[in-house]
Amino acid sequence: MSLAIVHSRALDGLKAPEVTVEVHLANGLPSFTLVGLADTEVKEARERVRAALSNSGLEFPFNKRITVNLAPADLPKESGRFDLPIALGILAAMGHVDAARLAELEFAGELSLGGELRPVRGALPMALALRRAAGGPRPRGLVLPQASAAEAALVDGVRLYGAAHLMDVVEALRPDGQGNGADLVRARANEPTASTVIVPDLKEVKGQTAAKRALEVAAAGGHSLLMVGPPGTGKSMLAQRFAGLLPSLTDDEALESAAVLSLAGCFDAQRWRQRLVRSPHHTASSVALVGGGSPPRPGEISLAHHGILFLDELPEFPRAALEALREPLETGHITIARAARRHDFPARFQLLGAMNPCPCGHFGNPLKACRCTPDQVARYQARLSGPLLDRVDVQIEVPAVAPDVLANSPDGEASTEVAKRVSQARERQRARQGVLNVDLTGSLLDEHAQPAPAASAFLQAACARLGWSGRAFHRVLKLARTIADLAGSEAILQAHMAEAIQYRRVLHLP
């Protein structure tokens, strides 16, 4: 048989479309041609496959004209994931591998020159795509390198096999009577081991009672948060302890988060069901934050899916990078559109921001005089646009604490105590409306966030006096609903509304 077909999958954002690897051997001048819109990494498979077959004691057709086609031809292919299917296709075309068994499986894996199988990115999206495409009496299984197979085994309902070497796969696919009875090892998900990551405790932050309360409210409803204050007041300390207030991810949320991390090649099984905290440096570009490149890769907002994105020194980020956060904060996903391709990535993250009020950092600090001019303060605060601030639910001031107060302040509540209240508030929200308060829209908002008459009149008066937008009006309603849930109240009372209104703090200009 001079023609063989092997099934594999490419990566197209979070999708993993099927790719058919066709291998044809013909007489003629010896050559190895690879076609099908292959990237440089894929074209280099020719050298890896040749060396891996030779060093594994397998025959390579040096005197044949080899043509490998990766179909469909208009789908870009990248990375070394096609090494294994190309090698198996050559062996099948030579009759050394059973073509019928190949038809029941899909393959992906990078080959070393010695034939060892190396992990590939996107194992979880591939397994998810295979589960969605499963049909017929016997859906195809998926063969991956061992490390990738253990990662993909987190997806239920898919036949997964792991292999450490090319020969393990070849021996399992030999035609009847030629093999040694070996079979592929079924990959299974390991029990998640306890993580060694220690989240700092909230009680270590002295004072800042109002800021701690704002953190609790933001955690309970999934709201975004901006902290403004002089340097050294504990803004970063508070942000580092925010993850300890949030409950663990559900299985579905953990799988969605892991799929994005797998696509970027940074999935860590030790952090399974834990909310990640991504904190890029303020020199990060807009592409680094929202994603992009060629081929497009997920950015920090997608890697923080169902987690936390902490942006310290917020005004120091490039203006274009900050403005790119507007739509994801509203929609929970990002669409990266280019001339040739269009990719959608999830981006339902919780934004935490921290900033100084002025270039020197001491505007409004009673303990140290500010040396900035009013114009400098205005320009510095104007680096955050009004539309972006309008999308931040909780905006609070973290004031400087006097040394004597700092020295005599007792420990506050531990993170575990606050986390219990947060968990109870979230359970109330999901039982009542199925989503967190931050996701209330349209009829759900009208039904579940209807304030008492006195609270409604108070909110309308505040909106008229402060000139708030319709978006700010609805975000305050959601905040008040969260505060009522923390208090165990079914109704949104005036006290809850007053606390929510004070969290819509605007930057104070001199």
List keywords for this structure.
16% strand, 22 helices, 5-stranded parallel beta sheet, 510 residues, 19 strands, alpha/beta
Q: Whole-number average pLDDT?
A: 90
The N- and C-terminal alpha carbons lie at a distance of 82 Å
Give unreliable regions as ranges: none
Number-wise, the strands total 19
| Beta-strand residue fraction | 15-25%
Folded structure, characterized:
It is built from 22 helices and 19 strands. By secondary structure, the chain is of the alpha/beta class. The strands form 6 sheets. Strands 12-15-18-11-19 form a 5-stranded parallel sheet. The protein has a 4-stranded mixed sheet with strand order 1-2-4-3. It has a 4-stranded mixed sheet with strand order 5-8-9-10, with helices on both faces. Strand 13 (291-292) and strand 14 (297-298) form a beta hairpin. Helix 20 packs parallel to helix 22 and helix 21 (470-486) packs across helix 22 (494-502). It starts with a strand and ends in an 8-residue tail after the last helix.
